């Protein structure tokens, strides 16, 4: 299975996430002060904070209180959340080459359906689980319209032509077509019109609590 890697922009320190909250806040305060052509003395007069205190904040040497942050936000005319923009957890990314896409078996899918998992970020803090697959169907693939699961699904046809059933309706899908649907309704390929069929499938389901 490919390993998740993070690739921050090392060339531009202005866009690089900060390692600690104090530095992140300090950079934002200084950046917005400069954008408004405001000196430390100007900001001191507007907020009632001493120049020494402001210097410590901008250099990340102290952790300002919420009251202080609100005063700074008012003086700089920005939302208080602006000061936390640079403080972000490390984000994961996965690069999967064609030869590395793991072939898996999905529960309930016929053996003739070939699934290649295109990436896995592991546990997510977003509250949803996202699974991207490349699905390949050849002329010996079984017809199966009984897929049913939580969440939503997007399929995008890369090759071939397929008649796809969702609930009581069918849709003829060709290369370039996309189909986005509630996956709780029975669904699946009803007819393989032109094979091989290759579709990109992205399934999003609520993360189990």
From TrEMBL:
Keywords assigned: DNA-binding
Outline the extent of the HTH cro/C1-type domain.
29-83
List the top taxonomic levels of the source. Bacteria, Pseudomonadati, Pseudomonadota, Alphaproteobacteria, Rhodobacterales
Residue spans of biased composition, Basic and acidic residues class: 7-22
Entry's InterPro entries? Cro/C1-type_HTH, Cupin_2, Lambda_DNA-bd_dom_sf, RmlC-like_jellyroll, RmlC_Cupin_sf, TransReg_Diox_bact_type
Keyword check for Mitochondrion:
no
Organism equals Meridianimarinicoccus marinus
The record's listing under SMART domains reads: HTH_XRE
**Protein name listed in UniProt:** Cupin domain-containing protein
Q: Region (Disordered) spans which residues?
A: 1-22
């Amino acid at each position: 299975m490919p390993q998740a890697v993070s690739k921050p922009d090392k060339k531009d320190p202005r866009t690089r996430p900060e390692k600690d909250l104090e530095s992140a806040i300090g950079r934002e305060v200084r950046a917005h002060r400069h954008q408004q052509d405001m000196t430390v003395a100007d900001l001191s007069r507007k907020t009632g904070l001493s120049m020494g205190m402001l210097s410590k904040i901008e250099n990340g040497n102290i952790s300002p209180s919420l009251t202080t942050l609100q005063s700074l936000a008012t003086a700089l005319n920005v939302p208080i959340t602006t000061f936390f923009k640079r403080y972000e957890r490390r984000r994961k990314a996965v690069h999967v080459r064609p030869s590395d896409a793991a072939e898996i078996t999905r529960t309930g899918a016929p053996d003739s359906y070939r699934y290649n998992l295109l990436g896995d970020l592991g546990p997510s803090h977003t509250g949803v689980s996202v699974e991207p697959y490349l699905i390949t169907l050849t002329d010996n693939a079984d017809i199966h319209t009984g897929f049913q699961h939580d969440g939503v699904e997007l399929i995008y046809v890369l090759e071939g032509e397929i008649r796809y059933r969702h609930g009581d309706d069918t849709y003829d899908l060709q290369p370039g077509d996309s189909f986005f649907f509630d996956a709780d309704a029975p669904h699946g390929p009803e007819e393989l019109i032109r094979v091989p069929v290759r579709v990109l499938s992205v399934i999003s389901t609520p993360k189990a609590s």
